[in-house]
Structures are given as structure tokens and as C-alpha cells.
Amino acid sequence: MNMKYFNDIYNHANDIENNELYLVDETGRVVSHGNEEKIGQAGAVPEQVYHPALTGDKFASEERNGKQIMSYRINSLDWILVNEIPVSLFIRDILTLRLIVVTMFIFSLASAAILSRYWIRRITQPLNSLTTVVRRMGQGNLGLTLELDLKNELGILIAQFNKMSRNIQELIEQKESIQEEKRTIEIGALQSQINPHFFYNTLNTIKWMAIMVKADNIVESITTLGDYLQPMFKQGMLCTIREEIDYIENYIKIMNYRMAGGVKLQKHISPQVMDYQFLRFLLQPLVENAITHGLKNRNGGTVTITATEYKNEIVWTISDNGEGMSETKLQEERESLIHGSSSEHSAEKKGIGLYNTNRRIQLHFGDRYGIVIHSEQQAGTELKFTIPKVQQT
């Protein structure tokens, strides 16, 4: 037998790590091995190879002691070719692949956790900041904003919150300014004497002195003046329309004492509106303006007051048949109503003036209300305004 041939086969088989290839005889003794020291020793042969019912060549395989033992029976020689390969060789690549997969899985989990933490913080941190600012605003710290430049839906939310916060602050400041202006205008509109009771009692004393000397015209004048001044001593900014009209009638009487009866008052007011609430002394500056400016060069004329209901509002018109205004003068008056550029000068000449009266209307009922002026030369002037109906409480 050419053993060199077998040795070449063994050497080639040994290229596989821990691989062992050899031949055994029918008794299971090694007859050929790449390692001559193992010749004559017992070989590891699967039991099924020796089964007496088997005939012809037979291949068998089994796992034993961590090795995969494969045998091939050669009946013509009664020899068996045995190949022992460690099982670890089969599963080493699988273990390597499993290690790679597990490593990648752990790395993916770690990356996902890091990225999740990053994105969660990226989302929750602005939300937490927004929550903190909202909580502080709830505690009364108004006007706070959040300076975060985000280009996403959260950025839009923060931008709208900042806009809302600024609007709230502006509304509060505007309300405070309006309240202060209300107080200033009401003080000017409701001027009273330092001691009104002393003034009123003094008028009564003069009245009784006139009665004693039978000066009837003086008695009538003082009585009218007392009736005219009496509402000034009352508390509150509101009165009924009936009370306001009575006040205007007394005012016209006093003006007629000065103008020798040259001013006539016409009223077109529905009885249904007489008990509605009205801003006290609102009509007097408008009637005064009609008399002192519209009728000043005519030694008298007619002032007409009209009040008509329209839905939930009352439309007022105060007109005169005086000399009217040029287009230039009319435009100046309209500008002064808006900007009050001549309010101080007007206050000296026309009581609290048209500007302050217009502001009173807007402060109490809103900016959409106010006085509108219409005038034509030699055709008189018309002041028109609308206010809501206010029931008595």
C-alpha cells in the first residue's frame, strides 16, 4: 500500500483547523494516521457502521465529545475512513455573526436612546420654558415673552404666545390710560364748587331778598340758575335722558336772559327713550357750541335736539340754523375732534369742548362711537352721534 498517498491526503485535510482524518480496520484499530503515534490505537467509529445488516459502502455521522465524527465504510477493504472535526468549527461563524448582530443591536439601542433623549429634550425643554412663563403670568407677571427661535410647530406656538402676551400688556396699559383719561374728563365735565351747599344757600338768600323787594325777574333768574346748578351737586356720571333735557331747558333759559330771549329750543324726542340712562352734562357743550358759534352773529336762532331709536341704539342730532362753516373750517373742526389739537383753546371758549365730549362718548361706549359734524355756510351746523341704549339699574 502506498502510504505516501494517504499522507498527502492527511496533510491536505490538516489544513482545516483541528481536523483529524484516519483509517481504521474492522476491529476499530487505527491502521493509517497522519500522526504515526496514533496507529494501533482505537478510533472513534459510529456504532451504526458495524451493523451486520448493512452491506456496501455506508456513510455515518454522529456528535461525540464536542466533535462531529463522520465515517465512510469501505467494504472491499473492510476499512473505515474516519474524519473528526470539532463542532466549534461549524458554529464559529455563527457565533461570530451572532456577536456582530448582538453588538449592532446594542449599538442601535444605545444610539436610539441617545437620539430619543436628544429629541425629547429638544421638544420638552421649550415646552417646560413655556409652562414656566405661563405659570409666572398666572401669578401676575404680565408682559413676559419667551425668546426661542424655533422653525417648527412649537416655534409657531411660542410666537403666538409672545404676541398674546404683548397684546394683554398693551390692553392693560390702554385700559389704565382710558381710566385715567375718564377721571380727568369727568372732573372737567362735572366741575362743582368747593362748597356747593354754601353756594346754593347763598343763591336762595339772594332769591328771598329779591322776593322781598318784589323783583320778579331777578327771582326767576336766580330760580332758573339754581335749577341749572343743582345737577352739578349730584353724585354719579349717569342720569336719565329726562333729567338731561330738563338741564338743557334751564340752560336755554339762562342763555335767553343774556341774549334777550333770542334762542329757541325745539325737541323731537320719543317719550319711550326718556327713562334710558345718559351721560350727565353730555348735551350741554354741544348746545353751547351751537349758540355761541352758530348763532353768535344772528342775535338768536333755533337749536333743535332730535333723538330717535334705531335697534339697540339712540341716534342724537343737535342742529342750529346759524351761519354754518366753510369747508376749510369744517375740516379743521373734524380734525380737532380726532386729535384734540385745539382742545385747550376750545375749553376756554366752549366749556369742556367738543373734543372732550367726543372722548367721553368713546371712553364710555367704545371707539366706534363719536360725534360727526356736518355744516354748510348760511345753512347751519349739525352735530350727530349714536350711543347704545342703557336701561336704568
TrEMBL record:
Q: What is its EC number?
A: 2.7.13.3
Mainly localized where?
membrane
The cellular location(s) given in this protein's UniProt record come to: Cell membrane
> What Gene3D superfamilies does the annotation carry?
6.10.340.10, Histidine kinase-like ATPase, C-terminal domain (3.30.565.10), PAS domain (3.30.450.20)
UniProt enzyme class: transferase
> Which InterPro entries does this entry report, sorted A to Z?
Bact_2-comp_sensor_kinase, HAMP_dom, HATPase_C_sf, HATPase_dom, His_kinase_dom, Sig_transdc_His_kin_internal
What does it catalyze? Answer: ATP + protein L-histidine = ADP + protein N-phospho-L-histidine
Alphabetized UniProt keyword annotations? ATP-binding, Cell membrane, Coiled coil, Kinase, Membrane, Nucleotide-binding, Phosphoprotein, Transferase, Transmembrane, Transmembrane helix, Two-component regulatory system
Q: Which GO terms describe its cellular component?
A: plasma membrane
Q: Which residues form a coiled coil?
A: 161-188
Pfam families xrefs:
HAMP, HATPase_c, His_kinase
Please identify the protein, giving its name as recorded. Answer: histidine kinase
Organism of provenance: Cohnella ginsengisoli
